[in-house]
Design brief:
25% of the residues lie in helices and 26% in strands. By secondary structure, the chain is α+β, with helices and mostly antiparallel strands.
Length: 672
């Protein structure tokens, strides 16, 4: 579409009653990002209340009409998705505006390939619109859906705001508080209380949205003002960070569990119990069930789940591991579930049978669930879709690592509706992490790992070798799983960074990485952790058998180099003595360097003798990597997990982020 054009959604698909809007962008450096928001507007072009403003801290409407699904990494950037159930949007709402904003004054002109795409309920793309003229704007309206004669239409808008999210929100009736924050010291009596950001800091948020918490009203005017303020969500339940003292007499006493896993003996038992445990918790904890199914096109409604359902298929009935049904306004959404545990692969013919059954019975989706991690642009299983059928079936994949991640995010960081739900999720998490459950995520680098490693040592692995591509794919799966695990533990967005030329398809990118791997024997990755400076780089050098984790800390914009060096050394008080620190110097390959143990008494040794300008510091740790392909104590996967955890806990977590503070709309509702 071109800017200003419009089209009726219903004319593009029969399945457009529910759509997924995707906003995507990328940057040459890989660190460009933005945050999406949605506004519901009435006939006057204003929100009816602040509850019509959806953002990271208010991600879903109570009626399920709007749900922010979060970010997913792409080959050269990220994509943020929004689910819109157009049939559930209140009649008083005439426009749905889809926006994105950047923070710290960063302009959209720094990002490339700004694009909005709309797909129908089955996942089929209907239309797209690219913004090619972004400049100094810090907020953008990508597009809007609006009613016209009972039909929903989409308009490609592409309007930018140099005043950022604050200016955009004000135009649509959201109150904005641009007042500076109170200085440190004796607290005042504020009328507003800051809602903690997803990253756990106040400063590092796209818009630190505030929740009204007035002082106790003592006058009629104050009472009336309190009533006019939008109601906030009631406090949600999260698990305490410190476990209560056990009442057991000794460590040999085992606590009773809702989902015991110690008695599981074979793969069939693991698959059956894992499926039943997961589906039952999804049905009983609405926040969790919706979180796992919304991305697959399921509405927000009453969910029921079933196991071992027999469905006719030719002469022999088929029994999928599970069935998920969601009822909303008398309509049913149904998905068949096929589960594998303990690293067992999915069977293409089995999944194909379920797709055919779903198509005949009018079901919407087939969901596969295993320890494998699906790569971008590479389906785990090639499925044939009969285009002649009116009913379209979507095939989706979940990794057990992603299920664990979502459970951690809810019970440890974001909260659920009540204590019983929190306890159920805690029991589920304990089950998934039990050694006998078989639900441990990606745990094997594959059959190509050992011969490829030997080929690197012998210098016999040549470019074009398929084994090198397989190793690169396994490495990408491992890095994605590391991001899920670390993000779940920290309660922050942790995403892999893909540095590739614009338009490069995933297969070509992996082939180029495989050729590079054959030449230098190194597997490289970068991950971005919200609220921390720089990217964490991970390098596995198969020639030396070493893992290197590192981060580059930019130099502050103000102050003196010696002050920077001293402050950095103070921040690293808990870091290992063998931490390697290198000064980055403008226009040169590198500056002074040394171990933390040597530099602690003499921080001035980090300063260039010739007075060259310092641009930052690189902090690195080396660790021996495991030799086997699995996740045993001596395995490569375990060594990568340990290296990332150690580097983040002892180094990255203690570094200060020199990010500017951001303005915030006031009185916006909170999700917890």
């Amino acid at each position: 579409m071109v800017k200003g054009a419009n089209v009726g959604i219903g004319s593009l698909s029969e399945e457009a009653g529910s759509v997924v809007v995707s906003l995507a962008w990328c940057s040459a450096t890989g660190d460009g990002d933005a945050d999406v928001s949605v506004l519901l507007l009435d006939a006057d072009g204003k929100v009816r209340s602040d509850a019509d403003f959806f953002f990271y801290n208010n991600p879903a409407a109570s009626d399920g009409s709007v749900q922010l699904l979060g970010k997913t990494p792409t080959a050269d950037g990220s994509e943020d998705r929004i689910s819109l159930d157009l049939s559930e949007i209140p009649l008083a709402v005439e426009r749905v505006v889809v926006t994105a904003s950047r923070y710290g004054g960063a302009p959209f002109g720094e990002l490339d390939d700004l694009r909005v795409t709309i797909a129908d309920r089955t996942g089929e793309a209907l239309l797209g619109f690219s913004i090619a003229d972004a400049g100094a704007e810090t907020a953008f309206i990508f597009g809007e859906l609006y009613r016209r004669n009972g039909e929903w239409k989409f308009r490609a808008v592409g309007q930018g705001y140099e005043s950022g999210l604050a200016g955009l929100a004000t135009d649509f009736g959201i109150d904005v508080d641009d007042s500076p924050e109170e200085p440190a010291g004796e607290p005042q009596e504020p009328a507003l209380e800051a809602v903690p950001s997803p990253s756990g800091t106040d400063a590092d948020t796209p818009a630190k949205l505030l929740m009204a918490v007035p002082a106790q009203p003592t006058t009629p005017e104050a009472v009336a003002e309190k009533k006019r303020r939008p109601r906030t969500a009631k406090k949600k339940v999260v698990l305490p960070k410190v476990a209560r003292k056990s009442l057991a007499e000794n460590e040999a006493w085992r606590q009773s569990r809702l989902f015991p896993a110690s008695s599981l003996k074979n793969d069939r038992e693991r698959e059956t119990r894992a499926t039943s445990v997961l589906l039952s918790v999804m049905a009983q904890v609405p926040e969790f069930g919706r979180r796992l199914t919304t991305a697959f096109g399921a509405p927000a409604g009453r969910m029921e789940t079933f196991t071992e359902v027999s469905l006719p298929h030719g002469e022999t009935p088929k029994r999928p591991d599970g069935v998920i049904r969601v009822e909303r306004a008398g309509k049913l959404w149904t998905a068949l579930v096929e589960t594998k545990t303990n690293g067992n692969p999915l069977k293409p013919d089995q999944v194909q049978d379920y797709v055919d059954i779903a198509a005949r019975r009018g079901y919407e989706a087939v969901i596969t669930l295993s320890n494998d991690v699906q790569l971008e642009g590479r389906p785990l299983i090639d499925i044939k879709i009969d285009r002649r059928r009116k009913n379209k079936v979507s095939v989706w994949h979940l990794s057990w690592a992603e299920v664990t991640h979502q459970a951690q995010m809810l019970i440890r960081h974001e909260g659920v509706g009540n204590a019983a739900h929190a306890w159920l999720l805690h029991e589920l998490l304990h089950y998934l992490q039990h050694e006998n459950s078989g639900c441990h995520g990606f745990q094997n680098m594959g059959p190509a790992w050992v011969p490829a490693r030997k080929g690197i040592e012998d210098e016999t692995l040549c470019q074009g070798d398929k084994r090198a591509v397989e190793v690169v794919e396994s490495w990408e799966r491992l890095v994605r799983q590391v991001c899920l695990r670390l993000g779940g533990e920290l309660g922050q967005k942790v995403l892999p960074v893909q540095r590739a030329k614009r338009g490069t398809d995933p297969h070509s990118r992996r082939t180029a990485l495989a050729d590079s791997f054959c030449g230098d024997g190194r597997l490289n990755a970068e991950i971005r952790i919200d609220g921390t400076p720089g990217f964490m780089a991970i390098v596995a050098d198969l020639r030396t058998g070493k893992l290197r984790t590192s981060v580059e800390v930019p130099a502050p914009e103000q102050g003196y180099p010696l002050t920077w060096a001293k402050r950095l050394i103070r921040q690293l008080a808990e870091a290992p003595a063998d931490l390697h620190i290198e000064t980055l110097v403008l226009g040169e390959s590198g500056g002074p360097r040394g171990t933390l143990e040597r530099l602690r008494p003499e921080p001035a040794d980090l300063l260039p003798k010739d007075g060259s300008r310092i641009t930052g510091f690189r902090l690195s740790l080396l660790k021996s990597m495991g030799s086997t392909r699995g996740n045993a104590e001596s395995g490569f996967i375990r060594s990568v997990d340990d290296a990332v955890d150690r580097f983040h806990a002892t180094v990255v977590a203690h570094l200060e982020s020199h990010q500017p503070r951001r303005t915030q709309p006031a009185g916006a509702p909170s999700a917890g």
